[in-house]
Amino acid sequence: MLDDFLIRAALAGVGLTLATGPLGSFVIWRRMAYFGDATAHAAILGVALAYGFGVSVYLGTLTVALAMALTVASLSGRGHAMDTVLGVLAHSALAFGLVAASFFSGLRVDLSAFLFGDILAVSRADLAVIWGGAGLVAAVLIWRWQGLLTATVNEELAQASGLNPRAERLVLTVSLALTVAVAIKIVGALLIAALLIVPAAAARQLARGPETMALGATAIGALAVLGGLQASLTWDTPAGPSIVAVAAAIFALSLVLRRRA
Amino acid sequence: MLIRAENLSVRHGEAVVLAGVDFTLAPGEIVTVVGPNGSGKSTLIRALIGLEPAATGTVTRAPGLRIGYVPQKLHIDAGLPMSVRRFLSLPKRVSDAQAEAALARVGVPGLGPRPLARLSGGQFQRVLLARALLGAPQVLILDEPTQGLDQPGTAAFYRLIDEVRAETGAAVLMVSHDLHVVMAASDRVVCLNGHVCCEGTPKVVSAAPEYRALFGLGTGGAFALYRHVHDHDHEGDEGHGHDPAAPHRAHPHGTHAHVHGPECRHDA
């Protein structure tokens, strides 16, 4: 069954939504959308460095995404104007990544695969990494759900209850880096943030509680993956952008449904 | 002793927000912190909880202290769907029966299914209190809990706090920006203005005609007028010549008004 590239692509995409559903919900609740973008753009630099040092692309993107996420998280605590810092860091990392990539002739050909994703080229090994990474993120989020949610509602409330809001923030930061690392092959660096935010935003319209929103985001994300693959197959469109386009269509539909409700 | 601060100073960057504060909260007592805007009231609360690092001095909390915190403001992001019932289950999940009992206790039964975003100010304060009570707190810490409530609402809320204290035996630490109105039930009032200006028992002023007129008799004496007009000198007072390093006790006797200079900075 795994011999069929379409089946592998569908499994990879659906596996990823296990992480992007709940994590995307936190990204919305905590207003981290730009943060997600910065981390994802930095991943391109990770790809270039991975080629340069001859290590796995997953390792390269994970390292750089993590470094970016931790840098941004630490700067955000020191009173810098956040959107400026993120704008500088995100686009610098992308630019340096593209420049670095130009030094490797093999990579120059491949680069669009990392910018826009290449879900149809997912191998069995990729599948294992994606399910492993996304499953780990989902498991951690479920394990720490109550604490994460309390710290998201109000950090002071969390602290007074004996939780450590800084630790909860770190959990989300690391989860984001890990998700970016495994998602880059599927939707590419430019659209990872969309896969985090759009399904969760659609689920927000229909959900009455945080849990239903997170689960709904995963369900909508999975639907978008399957719909996007189908569209890609039917009209020969690029798979990654098609997935995000379907998610956007579902979001538009959710606005209509909400108005009716 | 539940919480103790010794020689506590807190800085925000260069600015010294609190200097040399000594503070102790004993089990079961009600303490109200009053002071003008920017006097460091919220900073003191935050430092006592552990949200602000001490620049100098120490804050000690009893080991395993259960704090029920009612923040000054709680902004729920529009992107986060959250019902009252779900909110009560943070950070620990509680049963439906416990949640409903807590809501009923604070006077808003049946509010569970309502989204937090659609509560009135008074309902929201009560829901915050209900959530704090569900943790069986040893101390309730409330940061300007009556901000945005009208006067009858404020009176009712203070009465509720007093009842809760009587039932649970929890200590209560409350911040008020209102220099004149504090709970009659307060065991101590601490006046803060960057440092502890003075502290003492509030006078019971159910007899004060202007407050009777404002709140009526229906408040059941939940209010006291703590006269604290800052325009006297301390030299004529009984033995507490004012030294900022040794804040005096405010006058527990009679109807004697406690009066300071226009600003309570004696070291200025």
TrEMBL record, chain A:
Transmembrane segments: 6-29, 41-73, 85-107, 127-145, 170-201, 213-233, 239-257
Pfam family, one: ABC-3
SUPFAM superfamilies: ABC transporter involved in vitamin B12 uptake, BtuC (SSF81345)
GO annotation (BP), single: response to zinc ion
Recorded superkingdom: Bacteria
Intracellular or extracellular location(s): Cell membrane
CC terms in the record's Gene Ontology section: ATP-binding cassette (ABC) transporter complex
Keywords, ordered alphabetically: Cell membrane, Ion transport, Membrane, Transmembrane, Transmembrane helix, Transport, Zinc, Zinc transport
Main location: membrane
Membrane topology per record: Multi-pass membrane protein
Gene3D superfamilies: ABC transporter involved in vitamin B12 uptake, BtuC
Similarity comment: Belongs to the ABC-3 integral membrane protein family.
Its job: Involved in the high-affinity zinc uptake transport system.
Protein name: High-affinity zinc uptake system membrane protein ZnuB
Organism: Rhodobacter viridis
TrEMBL record, chain B:
InterPro entries: AAA+_ATPase, ABC_transporter-like_ATP-bd, ABC_transporter-like_CS, Metal_Ion_Import_ABC, P-loop_NTPase
Cross-referenced Gene3D superfamilies: P-loop containing nucleotide triphosphate hydrolases
UniProt feature coiled coil, ranges: none
Composition bias type Basic residues, residue spans: 248-259
Keywords recorded for this protein, A-Z: ATP-binding, Cell membrane, Ion transport, Membrane, Nucleotide-binding, Translocase, Transport, Zinc, Zinc transport
GO BP terms: response to zinc ion; zinc ion transport
CDD domains: ABC_Metallic_Cations (cd03235)
Region described as Disordered: 232-268
GO MF term list: ATP binding; ATP hydrolysis activity
Domain of life of the native organism: Bacteria
Annotated ABC transporter domain residues: 3-218
Comp. bias (Basic and acidic residues): 232-246
Protein name: Zinc transport system ATP-binding protein
Organism of derivation: Rhodobacter viridis
